[in-house]
Amino acid sequence: MLVVGLCCAGCGGPKVYRSAEGAVWNTTYHISYRASSDLHDSIRAVMKQVEMSLSPFAKGSLISRVNRGEDVCADSLLVRILGESRRVCALSGGAFDPTVSPLVNLWGFGYKPGDPEPSQEKVDSLLQLVGIGECSVSADGRVVKKHPQTEFNFSAITKGYGCDLVGEMLARNGATDYMVEIGGEIAMRGRNPKGHDWHIQIDAPVESDGAPVHEQLVVLPLTDCGVATSGNYRNYRETGEGRVWHTISPSTGRPAITDILSATVIAPSAMLADALATACMASPASEALDMVSAIPGVEALIVTPDTVLVTEGMGERLSWR
Known about the structure:
The chain is of the alpha+beta class. The chain has helices at 40-54, 62-67, 76-91, 101-106, 120-127, 155-172, 270-281, 285-293, 312-320, and strands at 2-3, 16-24, 27-35, 136-137, 143-144, 178-182, 185-189, 198-208, 211-222, 225-231, 236-239, 242-245, 262-267, 299-303, 308-310.
């Protein structure tokens, strides 16, 4: 998770730095932006639009209706996030796939009650529904599924996408300097109130008495990009077979077995960073590093129990500190 210190300060001319914060999607948000007027109502409106389009936890949302098999048309948000999910699935060799949703539910990390000890037969059955590469939006706007029972859960990319959408709204309203953080995912442009790049703290993956704590690993000056961190150490449950983590492997249908404790990704958009950070958590560290290194404009910092691995671009950023 990323922790960001916000400050609100006046600035010369008609625009001043403003802050907005609150709770949304079972997490919190913190936003700093430079604008001539208060845009908090518009920020909340964008978040509500995202929820009613993409939240599988909202029964009346568009994606919930698609998952139930209702005859509905995709909106622009669903078209965009489905297209990006298909792209990241291909880039990651299948490690990122939001149609793993029924298996996320099965293991107790989704929007339906799970099974504390799912059978391999049940896992194999649900694996037949997985495959976002075989899903699309038709010319008439309908979502084409791999199977009628295929379901989507875009939670591993929606927070990043929400950050991007809030940032786009701020830019349309003249706020070219902003930092949007929702649940640890971040989109940023321009400069902070001191006229510098935004300073983003990346947490070390640390637990204290079973609870995650915020311990600084590194602080990076960043702008004009998106940042996301994924870590299994914050979201898990205990089973008769031991602890299982929330990242479900699309290839096995079971909680991913990986040597990665956390993965932080910097990308041109928060949506892409969010999806790739999740893909890293479904892969061994060496494969995750190779995957990210092959994508132009993307950097990563991956923490394992023994070391910290970085892409070449991330290594250069760390050497500037």
